Automatic annotation (TrEMBL):
Protein name as annotated: Tryptophan synthase beta chain-like PALP domain-containing protein
Keyword vocabulary terms for this entry: Pyridoxal phosphate
Superkingdom: Eukaryota
Family matches, as SUPFAM superfamilies: Tryptophan synthase beta subunit-like PLP-dependent enzymes
Keyword Metal-binding among record annotations: no
GO molecular function per UniProt: D-cysteine desulfhydrase activity
PANTHER family in the cross-refs: 1-AMINOCYCLOPROPANE-1-CARBOXYLATE DEAMINASE-RELATED
Residue ranges annotated for the Tryptophan synthase beta chain-like PALP domain, each copy included: 24-122
Entry annotated with the keyword Cell membrane: no
Matches recorded under Pfam families: PALP (PF00291)
Cofactors named for this entry: pyridoxal 5'-phosphate
Family: Belongs to the ACC deaminase/D-cysteine desulfhydrase family.
């Protein structure tokens, strides 16, 4: 954690909480960390990606909605660490209408600028329905990050693995073009487009 950007702040519990035990006395404000990656999204990601690097993985795979904050955060962090990144993004379209013309706005723009390979999948009932498609790609890739990095290991996470600045990655944002490849994967019975 960069304590220069966000020192520990003293927390004064309200009077009504005086009888409660284990109330934290200090906290860190994510909005002061100076991190373009989203404070709350990067905490566990820091440890997941450190584990991937320890295992000598060269690629990360994650999935979510088309404009997912988690996917954007993973894409930027992967770029900073020199890892390839695949994003399985859920389109709002049905399989027969799936198109690679998805535009370049918001999180999708940032994910594509840093070189992530975007694989569109048809509209699903919920994001967790991406998991079978993700598992099918795992054999070719080296690490799988569940959507939103839902992990049960209580590993927590704080800043420190990377500095979180996006400015070196986007040096000419005025002329940024989305030339990264976008693929469609219409059916899990087809081979993955990677």
């Amino acid at each position: 954690m960069d304590v220069n950007n966000s020192p520990l702040h003293q927390y004064e519990p309200p009077n009504w909480a005086s009888s409660l035990k284990n109330i934290p006395q200090h906290f860190v404000k994510d909005d002061l960390t100076g991190c373009a990656l989203s404070g709350n999204k990067v905490r566990k990601l820091e440890f997941v990606l450190a584990d991937a690097l320890d295992k000598r993985c060269d690629t990360v795979l994650t999935g979510g909605a088309l404009h997912s904050n988690h996917c954007r955060t993973t894409a930027i962090a992967a770029k900073q660490l020199g890892l390839k990144c695949y994003l399985l993004l859920q389109s709002r379209e049905e399989a027969r209408q799936l198109t690679t013309d998805i535009g370049c706005k918001g999180n999708l723009l940032l994910s594509r600028i840093v070189g992530s390979r975007v694989i569109l999948v048809p509209h699903l009932q919920c994001v967790s329905d991406l998991k079978p498609m993700m598992k099918k790609m795992v054999e070719e890739l080296h690490v799988w990050l569940p959507d939103g990095i839902s992990r049960n290991d209580e590993s927590g996470g704080l800043f420190g693995l990377f500095d979180g600045r996006i400015d070196p990655l986007i040096t000419s944002s005025q002329s940024a073009k989305c030339e990264n490849e976008v693929f469609c994967w219409r059916d899990i019975n087809e081979p993955p487009p990677c």
